């Protein structure tokens, strides 16, 4: 029996060990697949590497990033509230073409710690209001000119502390000029050069990158919208964690958009925007019209075909079945529906207004047991002579001239701008938002012309913050969930292991119990064949003790052992054995009679 229990435990441990090996092998395979996918793309993404964490007890301390003014066109970590408040200007403008009561930019902004405080000295600019228009802007330390050979790098953090269902958290890089000199008048009509950042309303999720292109011929401005990324961006709107957004626009007209250091979209200003930067060289002639005689029909009815003489267009598609007969018991004299005999006219029924009252129709109860009621009609069957309306077969049109299109003429507005990177200079950065969620936190906003400077700034701010948050929330359950998300096959492996473990547990619980019961019964049967005292005798011994105690009340009762002693036999035991031998010669006697016999023998003693 012990060997069986040990075998079951060994099987369970073996199953758990095998499941662990399968999980580890799946994880390793997933890592290998991920690495192979990275190399199959033809390049290794240049992502900021996080410093290694030394031990689980490392204390991650935050210090406000050092801002070297020479390296930034704009930088604000919002930790120095006094200096930051001097930099930012709250809009006092109103929106045009909107109701007066909602036209004001009356959203509330504040400098404060996040709701989930990581470090008390890490502050951010928070939009406190929801369902209100809010606008705030700050001038750049020096305007960004697009004439040099250096890229534009915009980077900032957003934490949607209450999630986001409808609203934006994007920023605008305001164009240099008279319209942006007074930031108190900043509104939705203020000219901007680039708009960048996340936006969501319902299921419409966007990562905006819009730049305003100036027509070099007539000076008109057109918004160019970047194509949507391939992968849908969902997590930043749900997880309520800080996320880092970065836009890099290079002088070669290429661009990159990163979220948390991962590229989500990239391309060219010339080819990946709608409408395209450069218009077509030719356009359709607006004065050209299709001639009336132009034949665009590829096929026409055969003019030489004629309808056959035996073609009957009037033949019905179905005919009554002449072989059908009315079923027996059909009640032709009974209607299908009758007036409800239990219905009564309402008391407020007005015959002049409502007309003559009639009881509603109900199914005829007589027809419930009959095949049918009313006039019988033979069922319809397809007409073998039905051909339908005749039409001539189609043939190739000998006069087909193709699909007509207007002729092309040179585009009078054509231009070719091969350097759309050279945009309107930027003099300020602004946040002009409307959101149905409150407490949107902005942090560590920088504008620079050096990608490495932006990465170093993120390494000393965002990266430390996320590493701390991830370490605090890191647990075995989270690791299993992340592993399962990356490798869906692990769910199947885990399910098989759990089912097998449950099956083994049930077997060990009930299967061994049955084995113990059968073994106990077998041992009892073997014992009955011998003269050893049985557990059934214990109550009798207790009864003897009770009788002896009744006979001599002056003696104290002593507890009896749960198991009888095998080495010592009393005279009572000898008498019981003699009684058992006599009982074996009389098999017809019951256990109750045996018990009475033993009791009588005990009284004699």
Summarize the structure.
This protein is α+β, with helices and mostly antiparallel strands and 605 residues long. The protein contains 10 helices and 25 strands.
Rounded mean pLDDT is 79
Q: What is the CATH C-level name of the domain at 72-282 and 419-472?
A: Mainly Beta
Based on DSSP secondary structure assignment, what is the total number of beta strands? 25
What's the CATH architecture of the domain at 72-282 and 419-472?
A: Sandwich
How far do the termini sit from each other? Answer: 42 Å
Helix content: 25-40%
Major pleated sheet? 9 strands, antiparallel
Strand content: 15-25%
Number of helices: 10
Signal peptide: 1-29
Organism: Drosophila melanogaster (Fruit fly)
Disulfide bonds: 166-201
Biased composition (Basic and acidic residues): 286-309, 523-532, 568-588
Q: What is the fold's blueprint, element by element?
A:
Blueprint: H1 2-40, E1 72-76, H2 81-87, E2 89-90, E3 109-112, E4 124-127, E5 133-144, E6 152-160, E7 166-168, E8 171-175, E9 192-201, E10 204-214, E11 221-226, E12 242-249, E13 254-259, E14 262-268, E15 273-274, E16 282-284, E17 299-301, E18 318-320, E19 337-339, H3 351-354, E20 361-363, E21 380-382, E22 394-396, E23 408-410, E24 426-434, E25 440-448, H4 451-459, H5 462-473, H6 476-486, H7 489-529, H8 537-551, H9 571-585, H10 591-604
Antiparallel strand pairs: 1-25, 2-5, 3-4, 4-25, 5-24, 6-12, 6-25, 7-9, 8-9, 8-24, 9-10, 10-11, 11-15, 12-13, 13-14, 16-23, 17-22, 18-21, 19-20
Structural summary, described in words:
The protein is of the alpha+beta class and 605 residues long. It has 10 helices and 25 strands. The protein has a domain of 265 residues: Jelly Rolls (Sandwich). Strands 2, 5, 7, 8, 9, 10, 11, 15 and 24 form a 9-stranded antiparallel beta sheet that branches. A hairpin with a 4-residue loop joins strand 12 and strand 13. The two termini are 42 Å apart.
């Amino acid at each position: 029996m012990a060997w069986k229990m040990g075998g079951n435990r060994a099987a369970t441990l073996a199953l758990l060990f095998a499941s662990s090996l399968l999980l580890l092998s799946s994880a390793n395979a997933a890592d290998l697949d991920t690495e192979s996918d990275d190399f199959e793309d033809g390049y290794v993404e240049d992502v900021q590497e996080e410093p290694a964490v030394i031990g689980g007890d490392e204390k991650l301390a935050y210090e406000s990033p050092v801002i070297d003014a020479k390296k930034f066109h704009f930088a604000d970590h919002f930790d120095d509230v006094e200096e930051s408040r001097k930099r930012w200007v709250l809009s006092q403008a109103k929106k045009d073409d909107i109701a007066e009561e909602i036209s004001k930019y009356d959203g509330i902004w504040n400098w404060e710690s996040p709701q989930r405080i990581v470090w008390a000295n890490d502050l951010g600019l928070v939009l406190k209001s929801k369902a209100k228009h809010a606008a705030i802007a700050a001038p750049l330390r020096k305007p960004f000119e697009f004439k040099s050979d250096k890229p534009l790098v915009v980077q900032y953090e957003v934490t949607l502390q209450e999630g986001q269902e409808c609203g934006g958290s994007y920023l605008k890089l305001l164009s240099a000029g008279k319209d942006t000199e007074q930031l108190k008048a900043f509104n939705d009509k203020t000219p901007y050069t680039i708009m960048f950042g996340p936006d969501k309303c319902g299921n419409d999720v966007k990562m905006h990158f819009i730049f305003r292109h100036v027509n070099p011929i007539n000076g008109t401005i057109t918004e160019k919208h970047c194509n949507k990324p391939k992968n849908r961006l969902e997590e930043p709107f749900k997880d309520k964690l800080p996320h880092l957004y970065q836009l890099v626009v290079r002088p070669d007209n290429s661009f990159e958009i990163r979220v948390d250091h991962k590229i989500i979209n990239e391309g060219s200003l010339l080819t990946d925007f709608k409408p395209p930067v450069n218009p077509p060289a030719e356009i359709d002639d607006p004065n050209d019209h299709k001639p009336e005689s132009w034949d665009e029909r590829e096929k026409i009815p055969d003019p030489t075909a004629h309808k056959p003489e035996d073609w009957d267009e009037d033949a019905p598609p179905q005919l009554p079945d002449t072989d059908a007969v009315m079923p027996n018991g059909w009640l032709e004299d009974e209607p299908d529906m009758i007036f409800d005999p239990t219905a009564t006219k309402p008391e407020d029924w007005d015959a002049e207004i409502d007309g003559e009252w009639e009881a509603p129709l109900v199914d005829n109860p007589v027809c419930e047991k009959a095949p049918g009621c009313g006039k019988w009609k033979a069922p319809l069957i397809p007409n073998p002579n039905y051909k339908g309306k005749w039409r001539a077969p189609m043939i190739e049109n000998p006069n087909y001239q193709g699909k007509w299109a207007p002729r092309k003429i040179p585009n009078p507005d054509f231009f070719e701008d091969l350097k759309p990177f050279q945009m309107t200079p930027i003099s300020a950065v602004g946040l002009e938002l409307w959101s149905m969620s409150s407490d949107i936190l902005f942090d560590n906003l920088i504008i620079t012309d050096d990608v490495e400077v932006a990465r170093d700034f993120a390494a000393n701010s965002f990266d430390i913050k996320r590493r701390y948050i991830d370490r605090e929330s890191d647990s075995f359950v989270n690791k299993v969930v992340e592993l399962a998300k990356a490798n869906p096959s692990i769910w199947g492996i885990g399910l098989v292991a759990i089912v097998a473990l449950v099956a083994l547990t049930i077997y060990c619980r009930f299967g061994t119990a049955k084995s113990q019961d059968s073994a106990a019964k077998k041992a009892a049967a073997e014992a009955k064949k011998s003269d050893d005292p049985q557990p059934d005798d214990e109550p009798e011994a207790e009864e003897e003790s009770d009788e002896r105690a009744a006979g001599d009340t002056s003696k104290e009762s002593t507890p009896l052992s749960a198991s009888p002693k095998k080495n010592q036999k009393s005279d009572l035991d000898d008498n019981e054995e003699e009684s058992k031998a006599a009982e074996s010669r009389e098999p017809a006697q019951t256990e109750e009679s045996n018990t009475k016999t033993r009791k009588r023998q005990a009284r004699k003693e």
